[in-house]
């Protein structure tokens, strides 16, 4: 049963339950362990965890707000397809936020931050040789580190809430994932922060976050059943620029 894909992690009863259920389910959906159309039962998940239905219901509502679930009252709750326009718009917002984040960091380069980022780059190079999934996790750490260093952790939380559809795309595209290119782009960002070049750092981040647009049409063509609202793809498979 698909619920078993969700219920494979213990809950910590010393902290709030609903956020834990949401985190577990979100991870399974983003990693496509629960593909579009998967049915989830609030009652069955609650029973399997030995909890009331209320925290599961709260988790469902939060995931629906992210566009990951479709709640049909008195019926089943379904995992949604990846919404193509949302992927484009969330990427657009993320670019705007993160380009300004690295601009701020480059205005006042901190040696300790640069040292930490260099260490992360080494980890990325090592992990990228063996696991695309683990590299995605390292990539997440890299971008979160930048946001927190700039004092924009709240902005990063906002971005995290927007980019769930982008993350689903990334986990669909391991064989197309240009890890070497992404590490090179990360390195360029760190180089420009260290050199104190705000404009160049900002441009480097924008180039980096545009990378997904190069492979997105091919990803959609290979996984059409996962996507919704793809009418904006041109006849040659490239996306119209409607961000």
TrEMBL record:
<dbReference type="InterPro" id="IPR008920">
    <property type="entry name" value="TF_FadR/GntR_C"/>
</dbReference>
<dbReference type="Pfam" id="PF00392">
    <property type="entry name" value="GntR"/>
</dbReference>
<dbReference type="GO" id="GO:0003700">
    <property type="term" value="F:DNA-binding transcription factor activity"/>
</dbReference>
<dbReference type="InterPro" id="IPR036390">
    <property type="entry name" value="WH_DNA-bd_sf"/>
</dbReference>
<dbReference type="InterPro" id="IPR011711">
    <property type="entry name" value="GntR_C"/>
</dbReference>
<keyword id="KW-0238">DNA-binding</keyword>
<protein>
    <submittedName>
        <fullName>Putative HTH-type transcriptional regulator YdfH</fullName>
    </submittedName>
</protein>
<keyword id="KW-0804">Transcription</keyword>
<dbReference type="Pfam" id="PF07729">
    <property type="entry name" value="FCD"/>
</dbReference>
<dbReference type="InterPro" id="IPR000524">
    <property type="entry name" value="Tscrpt_reg_HTH_GntR"/>
</dbReference>
<keyword id="KW-0805">Transcription regulation</keyword>
<dbReference type="InterPro" id="IPR036388">
    <property type="entry name" value="WH-like_DNA-bd_sf"/>
</dbReference>
<dbReference type="GO" id="GO:0003677">
    <property type="term" value="F:DNA binding"/>
</dbReference>
<feature type="domain" description="HTH gntR-type">
    <location>
        <begin position="15"/>
        <end position="82"/>
    </location>
</feature>
């Amino acid at each position: 049963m698909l619920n078993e894909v969700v219920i494979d992690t213990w809950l910590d009863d010393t902290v709030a339950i609903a956020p834990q259920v949401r985190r577990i389910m979100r991870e399974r959906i983003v990693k496509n362990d629960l593909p579009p159309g998967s049915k989830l039962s609030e009652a069955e998940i609650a029973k399997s965890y030995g909890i009331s239905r209320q925290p599961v219901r709260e988790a469902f509502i939060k995931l629906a707000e992210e566009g990951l679930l479709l709640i049909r009252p008195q019926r089943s709750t379904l995992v949604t397809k990846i919404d193509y326009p949302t992927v484009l718009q969330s990427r657009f917002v993320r670019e705007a936020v993160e380009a300004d984040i690295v601009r701020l960091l480059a205005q006042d380069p901190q040696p300790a931050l640069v040292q930490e980022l260099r260490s992360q780059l080494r980890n990325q190079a090592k992990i990228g040789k063996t696991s695309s999934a683990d590299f995605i996790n390292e990539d997440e750490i890299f971008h979160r580190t930048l946001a927190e260093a700039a004092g924009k952790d709240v902005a990063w939380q906002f971005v995290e809430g927007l980019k769930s559809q982008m993350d689903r795309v990334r986990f669909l595209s391991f064989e197309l994932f240009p890890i070497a290119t992404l590490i090179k782009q990360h390195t360029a960002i760190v180089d420009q922060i260290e050199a104190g070049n705000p404009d160049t750092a900002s441009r480097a981040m924008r180039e980096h976050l545009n990378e997904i647009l190069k492979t997105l049409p091919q990803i959609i063509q290979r996984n059409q059943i996962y996507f919704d609202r793809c009418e904006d793809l041109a006849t040659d498979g490239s996306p119209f620029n409607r961000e």
